[in-house]
Amino acid sequence: MDNNKRKLLKQMGVVATGLQLQSFSSFVQSSENTRLTTNVTNKFLSKKNINWSTVRQEFNLDENNIHFANFLITSHPRIVRDDINYHRNRIDKNPAFEMHHESIAHHESESRDWAARYLKVKSSQIALTGSTTEGLGLIYNGLKIAANQEVLTSEHEHWATKGALRFRSQRDDINIKTIKLFSDPHHVSTDEVLGSISSNITDKTRVLALTWVHSGSGVKLPISEIGKLVSEKNKQREQENKIIFCVDGVHGLGVENTSFAELNCDFLIAGTHKWMFGPRGTGIICSRSEQIENLIPTIDTFSGQDNFGTIMTPGGFHAFEHQWAMRKAFEFHLMLGKEQIQQRIHQLNTLLKQQLKQLGSVQLVTPESTKYSAGFTFFRVKNIDCEKVAKYLQVNRVAVDATNRDVGPVIRMSPGLINSEQEIEYVIQLLAKKIA
Ligand SMILES: Cc1ncc(COP(=O)(O)O)c(C=O)c1O
What we know:
The protein is α/β, with parallel strands linked by helices. 42% of the residues lie in helices and 14% in strands. It has helices at 3-11, 24-29, 31-34, 52-56, 78-93, 95-98, 101-119, 132-142, 159-172, 190-200, 223-235, 260-263, 308-311, 320-336, 338-358, 386-395, 421-435, and strands spanning 66-67, 126-129, 150-154, 175-179, 205-211, 244-248, 267-271, 283-287, 362-364, 377-381, 398-399, 401-405, 408-413.
C-alpha cells in the first residue's frame, strides 16, 4: 500500500478499524466525520451562507440511499411539487376552463418569464419543450440548410444530437461532418478545441452542433470562446452562409452561473428536469433571435404566432401541470443564487476529485479544473471493470452508473446541491475498501 493511500485510509479510520465498513447513517453519526457537516444557519435562503442540508430537505429523496446520479432525472423539490399540485388540482376540477387559450397562454408565459429571467433574455426567446431530446429534434429537423451545405459536429455528442442529425441527413441528403475535439478529456484545452473546430470549418459549414458539458467524459467545452470563433468566421460570410451555432446545454444549465448572451450561441437546447430540478418532462430552447430565423417549425403551436418562444413551443395538450410548474424551478435557482449554486457544485466535485486522486489506482477522466468541468466527476479504476465498480457502489446504496461512450468506459458521479461532503467521504471509504 503506498503512503498516500495509507494516509487517506488512516484519516478515515479504515486502517484502524480493520477495513470494517460502517453504514452511511453510523458514518454520519461518528464525531470524526460530523466536522464535515455544513455549519451554517438553517435559513437556506440566506444567500451569504446557505445551509445545503436544509436545501436537501426540500426533496423527498430516500434517506437510505446516496444519490449521485442526478444527471439522469431529478427528484422534484417542494416548491415544484407544490406548484404541480396547484395546477393539477385546478385542471382536475375544471379541465375545460384550464385548457382555454388564455389560460394556457398565461401559464406558459409564467414559465417563459422565469426561464428568461434566469438566462437574462426576453421571454420571446424561450420556447417550452418536453426534454432536451425533443428540443434538439425540433432544431435539427427545422434549420434551413441548403443541399451543398453541411453540419459540423463532434464524436462527443449524446445520441439525442447524433440521432436528430442522422434523421436530417437521411431526409435531405445533407453531409454531417463528425470530428474529434480533444484527444485526452482530462487534459483538454481551449487551444486544442478551438484548433479542431477552426480547422474543420469550411465554406460549406452551415451548422455547428456541440454539447456544453459532455455526459461521456464530463468535459465542459469553452462554449463562449467557440461562439466568438464562429462570430469571427461569420464576419466574412453572406447571410445565407452564416454558421448557426447550436448547443445542447442540459448539463450546464442549472450548474454554471452564465447568461445566454455569454455563451455566444444561436440556440441553447436543454431539458429542465435534471440540474434545474424542473418538473419531469420539461425543457427549453433559448434562441438568440426573438423571431424565427433560419428555421422551419416542425410541430404547430397552440401558443400563438407572435415570436420564437410561442411559435417553437409545440402544440397539443401536454401534462400541463408539469409544464406550468417549470416556473418554480427557475425561481428556486434564483432564490438560492446562481453564483452560490455554481460554487457549491464546483466545490463538491473538486473535493471528490481530490479524494479520488488519493486512491492510488483511480484514473480521473473529467478534467480537474472547473474551467473545463461542471458537475460531473467521471473516473475509472485500474484493472477493475467500470460496470463492476458501479454495481459495487449501487449494492452499497450509492446511486451512480457506468457508461462507455466517446472516451471509453467511465464510472459517473455528479455531486450536486442535494449531496454533502459526508456522502463524498463515505463513497471514498467504500472505494478504498474495494481497491485495497
Ligand atoms: C448530453 C445529453 N444530451 C441530451 C440528453 C437527453 O436529455 P433529455 O432526457 O432531457 O432528453 C442527455 C441525457 O442525459 C445528455 O446527457
